[in-house]
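[09:14] KT: can someone run the structure on this one? pasting the chain below
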Amino acid sequence: MHRKHWGLVASAALAAAACHPAFQLKKFSTNENLYQASLREFEKKKWDNAVAGFEKLTTELPARDTLLPRSYWYLAQAHQRQDEWLLAAQNFTRLVESFPDDSLGDDAALEAARSYKHMWRKPTLDAQYGETSLATYNTLLGLYPTSPLLPTVQKEVGELNNWFAIKNYEAGMYYFRRKAYDSAVLYFRDVVARWPEAPTVRDAELRLAQSFKAIRYKEDLGDVCSSLRAGYPGDREVREICGAGPAPAATSTPPPAKPPVGD
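[09:31] RB: done, structure tokens below
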């Protein structure tokens, strides 16, 4: 009986806890108390509680309250921890738009760009969020030209641009494999023109050369092969597709000048 009694007590306690969760928004009498409690929930990795607390703060804090940008920051961070990337990006963006001069502004812009980028899962998929991510990186560069985050931003923009290059290259390959060379050329040229630093450029130029060969555009073939030979000297695949190229013109050595004839 004694053991059974304690079992019933434990069950009742669990049921009470379920009905009356420890984190109740209404029990915090001030925004400062709610902020501190929400921060504790965040630090304990109780993301749902943190989201609930910081979300309430973002709707109730006065516009000039110093806790408001921090509430946006932690709300967005809590959404990130739950893989809620769009909600995270939106709240980071709200921080940047509402408090561009805050010390968290450039950090929030970077995290917003990363959150949008995270939703573009593969280069071959729809690039809507990739475009939004790139626009957000550019906003960061425009608003915070002296930010210490700039080297990180430039590196991540380069990675993002490489994905755009891959996406267009794969679209070109779709037509190339079907021998629709004129359509393929449009995509390959786009890769070369828009993302010249992307690793995919070499492959795009090689496929351009093969396309021009197939449709007998000799002048265009000559131009792209000259570019390939200059950019990738000694490359075996360049040599196989474009040939060795014209031999360098021979230079003649002028004869030595005759000494002046004396009087």
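[09:33] KT: thanks! The domain at 168-242 is CATH 1.25.40.10 (Serine Threonine Protein Phosphatase 5, Tetratricopeptide repeat).
[09:34] RB: yep, looked fine to me
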